[in-house]
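To close the chapter, one final illustration. This time we ask the reader to focus less on the individual chains and more on the assembly as a whole: which components sit near each other, and how the overall shape emerges from the parts.
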Amino acid sequence: SQELEQSPQSLIVQEGKNLTINCTSSKTLYGLYWYKQKYGEGLIFLMMLQKGGEEKSHEKITAKLDEKKQQSSLHITASQPSHAGIYLCGADHSGAGSYQLTFGKGTKLSVIP
Amino acid sequence: SAVISQKPSRDICQRGTSLTIQCQVDSQVTMMFWYRQQPGQSLTLIATANQGSEATYESGFVIDKFPISRPNLTFSTLTVSNMSPEDSSIYLCAGGSYNEQFFGPGTRLTVL
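The assembled structure is written out below.
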């Protein structure tokens, strides 16, 4: 089974609505990275979480790592068409400061004006 | 932050040929990696590019098929050798520090 599960697989929201994307791991998350991918633009680094309960924000995007360090959520407030894309979570499961990441399959977000 | 560029951005190649992808980082980075993203799939790590020594390959990937070079802290190449249609994929270079890993825009490879 997949080590890192993202849900939902796809999401269509009306502009201005809030949304949440989840990333659930079967192993402890020692580092959890959120990226946004647009066609032809590679992955855009959003933020990285390490500590249980940690929460970070960047503009209207907030990500949190749960206390047990096995799930992270990404929340977008008042979504805009510019938020559309594929959101990927990547995990360090080694606990040894490994740079090698395991990725989820992504959540495709569409924002309808 | 680091800005990573890749060349070529896309290519269409014939079966049995090889393609070398270049990755350039605008600043020195500790680590550099090569990933593959097959259609509809998540990213899969191919190898860690080690400066001045042989790359470290993940299970399922071998040096003969994916030779990698990293002559300095800002540049790396990945060659996809003896290509088959199954190698059609997006190949991404990544690099940075532990707290911030940045990705290049990817190279979209189609093998006919």
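Chain B touches chain A through 27 residues (CB under 8 Å). The longest strand of chain B covers residues 89-96. With these observations in hand, you are ready for the problems at the end of the chapter.
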